[in-house]
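Journal club side-thread
Mid-discussion, someone asked how the predicted structure for our own chain would compare to the paper's figures. Pasting it here so we can look after the session.
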Amino acid sequence: MSASVNEPLKHKVTAQLNLFYLALSFFTRLPVPKSMHYSEALLNKANRYFSLVGLVTGGLLALSYACFSIFSPTNIAILLTMAVSLLLTGAFHEDGLADMADGIGGAFTTEKRLIIMKDSRIGTYGAVTLVIALLLKFTLLMNIAENDSNHLLLAIVLAEVLSRAVAGSLISSMPYVSDIEQSKSKPLAQAQSISELALLLLIGITPLIFYSGEVIFTLLIVLVFFRSLFKRWLMAKIGGFTGDCLGAGQQLSELLIYLTLVSYINKDVFIELAFTGHSFLGNSIMEHNFMGIIG
């Protein structure tokens, strides 16, 4: 009797794991089980786990920085961690940012902008935008690390998770405007259900529990405001979103998260357990080496 009851639960868990593996395989170069089932319909449902993919990449990047910082100075450790990030995702989101900048910056009509976005070659707008974004990211990470490496580890995980929630949420409120037959994200262009959006956002905000109420409030206001402006801008420029726009949204959200954290870096409210008000990285923890990176 118990076996028959557990069977449906087992199928549900297997189905959800399959959706997660699909999201992981789409957004990263990480290996997934060969038993994974693929279809465009399933990949579309996998959008609920975009944030969870960020938790995986964020954890790997935090671990990478912790390892690199043992034998390298901070600036080298951060550069190596950024290189690992590009390798993990195949520069998927950075490519979207560059393509969007080329398309919207290099044309005056929606049709021409979409054509340019599909071009695999990078132009002036894309190159300049990508260089500035990477330099800004490096500078912000350096600023956080110089204050405290523990803060950097948490910030990396938060930015990876929350930025994907912001970008993924655009699917629920905008039409897809690219050529479905040629788009590299065509399975993700369909509607997003309320339950999928709710799970995406719930996972996305989970790392915020380690931050103070003031930091949480500021981050959410900044990201909600950015999402609203970004959505209006895309609607005005191309009438909706493309896969490149989602990648750009993730990159811009990530930079805004780091920028907001840097603005709080010298305040006592920077990191504490949000639901208790107790310091998470207080003196008791600071007195010890954390993963061997604090002297």
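Post-session note: The chain has a mean pLDDT of 86.
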